[in-house]
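Review form for a predicted model. The reviewer records the input and the model, then writes brief findings.
Reviewer: anonymous (R2)
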Amino acid sequence: MSAPDGPVGTERSLGQLVSAASKELSELVHDEIALVKAQLTQDVKRGAIGSGAFVAALAVLLFSLPMLSFALAYGIHTWSDWNLAVCFLLSFAANVLVAGLLALIGVVFAKKAARGKGPQKAAAAAKETAAVLQHAKPHPRRLRPAAGAPELEAGERADAVARSTS
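Model under review:
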C-alpha cells in the first residue's frame, strides 16, 4: 500500500483508506481499458494489412493481366521463338504466381490478426483482478499499547476502542 499522507508515525483514517483504495481501483480500471484499446488497435492493424494484401492481389490479377500478358508473351516469343500460344500461357502463369504470393501474404497477416486475442487476454486479467479484490481481507494489525499499558497476547481482545481524532 502507499505511504501515509501525513507525518511519519501517524495513521490514516478509515475514510482516507477507502478513498485511496477507490482511487487506485479506478486507476486500475482505466489502465485495463487502455490495455484493451491498445490490443484491439493492434489486431485491427493486422487485419487491415491482411485485407490490403488481398485487395492488392486482386488488383494485380485484374489490371495487370492484359498488359503484362501481352508484353511477356511477345518477349518470350522473341527470345525463344516458341509458339505464340505457349508464350501467352507462360505469361498468364507468371501473373497467377505473383497474385498467389500476394494472397499468401494476406493469409499470413489474417491468421496473425485472428490469433491475436488481445481483448480476451485483457478481459481475463480484469476478471482475475476483480476476483482477487472480492476475496481480499485486511491484514490484522498488531495493536500498539499506550505507554504503560500491558501488551495483548495473540487471541486477546482489547476492551477499549481507540478513536481517531481526524
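Findings: The CA atoms of residues 18 and 46 lie 42 Å apart.
Further findings: Helices lie at 14-63, 65-80, 84-115, 118-134.
Recommendation: see findings above.
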